[in-house]
Amino acid sequence: MVLASWVNMGLRLEAKAHPLKPRVACGAEGFATVVANSDEDATLQHQVIISMLEHGVSAILISPSYGDTKTTFDAIRRSHTPTLQVLRTGDRRIEDFPFYSIDYTSGSMLAVDHLLSQGLRDIAFVGGVEGRQITMERMSGYLAGMKRAGLEAPTFFGRNTREFGRDIGLEIVKTHPHIKAAICFNDMVALGMMSAMARSDIKVGQDFFLIGFDDIRESALFYPTLSSVHCDIEGFGQRSAHLLLSWLASGEQPDDPGRAGVHLEIRQSSTVPI
């Protein structure tokens, strides 16, 4: 329930962008938060945002859906509601809608450098929908690192699920046996590939090497433990909320907030035995 004495703050986030931390940060400043997930439906997203604007939200934190979002952002612009885009750019008018995201490029470059340091050369990038912003960002560091090393960069696009990881893992074993390592779009794809390797009697961390992305909790609980690019989503959410709160307090749009840093959690799945 939103108390009348509070001011609303709208959060339009996809499931992966956990809303807890922004809500905590906003609540600490006396803001109630209205959270919505449009499930990648641009039409539903538009309806949600219009409803938020009609209810007079003070600010909007939005991870835009894919699709045509111009009408949505035009409505936000007319309302003069401070709006921060996170993780994806739904509107290129950054002067009106500043953008804050994670340094995915550095993450995949760290992953490539780690695998190369293990003496591996046949490294693939697996998962992600071709052409999507986050896919291309997560893949860009991989492509740059492989190019710098003078190596081919095979890519296998697909759904970001364990099922896809399992299926493509089995296909790689069957039709691309020279590939010995993979950087995956996310940990779910990597865990699916682990299942494929187990089915094929290939030992991850000995015969095949894997790195995921996001560093979900299961990464450290699986066996072998999964190396992963840690993105600190909770810290990212806190920082996003504070950027908006500062904007509201000062009346000044934030300067380019840049990108949140990442680091590589090195575990058993990517470490060549001595």
From TrEMBL:
Transcriptional regulator LacI/GalR-like sensor domain segment(s): 112-270
Keyword terms of this UniProt record: DNA-binding, Repressor, Transcription, Transcription regulation
Gene3D superfamilies registered for this protein in UniProt: 3.40.50.2300
Domain of life (superkingdom): Bacteria
InterPro entries named in the record: LacI/GalR-like_sensor, Peripla_BP_I
GO molecular function: DNA-binding transcription factor activity; transcription cis-regulatory region binding
Name of the molecule in the record: Transcriptional regulator, LacI family
Source organism of this protein record: Roseicitreum antarcticum
